[in-house]
Amino acid sequence: MPNLQWVPSPNYTEWRQGNAIQKITFHHACSSAASAVNWFKNPNSQTSSHFIVGPGIIYCMVDTDDTAWTNGNWNSNLVSVTIEFEGTWLNGFRNESTINTGVELVAWLQDLYPSAGFNRHRDISATACPGDFPVEEVWTKAAQRRELINNPPKPVPALPEWQTNRKDFVKTMYIAKDGVQLLDLVTLKPADARVFAQNMKIDIGSMTTVGGKTYYITAYSTSKNIGAGYFGGDLLLQPYSPPPPVVDLPTDPDAGKLNEQKLNWIITTLNAIINFFKGLTPWK
Ligand SMILES: [Zn+2]
Question: φ and ψ at 76, to 5 degrees?
Fold first, then answer.
């Protein structure tokens, strides 16, 4: 922002006799801003301006609620806010810094007095003032500046993770189990109340990852850029088919038990062997 200095001038009339501000009047000072300030501070000059603009500096010398003695026309003074620009704006003279400082001031005045237009000193009095000062340029740039201040461009929000990570994945997939829900890919909570049944067929248009987990987005949501999809574990590339049932082989109710008949046979045989050995002479 330019440096703003309040240097009051004694040369003004209080208030505006009930008039509203209708014009911003442009002048060139034909001197430095500092010289113009000195001149308007002098009561003998009987002239003033609300503002004097130099490169990077704005002097405010008369309150805009009061009438400055600038335009050489009383009725015009009553309805104008007046600005003097440093320099003699003739023969190609131009100072970008003064222009830019003027743009800041005029933007502020446009905001304060939105119904005011602009004019040049020579539109009111017999004078060449303000020479070739680029009035339209300053007025237009000020309007743009004001628009930028009042409606700054909105920052572009960062893309959510699902959008950043999305890749094309065109496949037909199937719901893996009953009760699967479509998820909001930002909150990872159900996107709506719908519940899908096992083996429902879905056309997938893309896949993405959120928090390191895979999600699949329908072709429709992909085309509409809707942030909803299915958790990877809830979908299959082919319909679910249950594993073949385990065949129960017929079982022997006596399996695991020693057959009583067989046991009797073993006992009888063992006894026979024992008796056989009892009949032998023991070894020596
Ligand atoms: Zn003038």
Answer: -70, -45
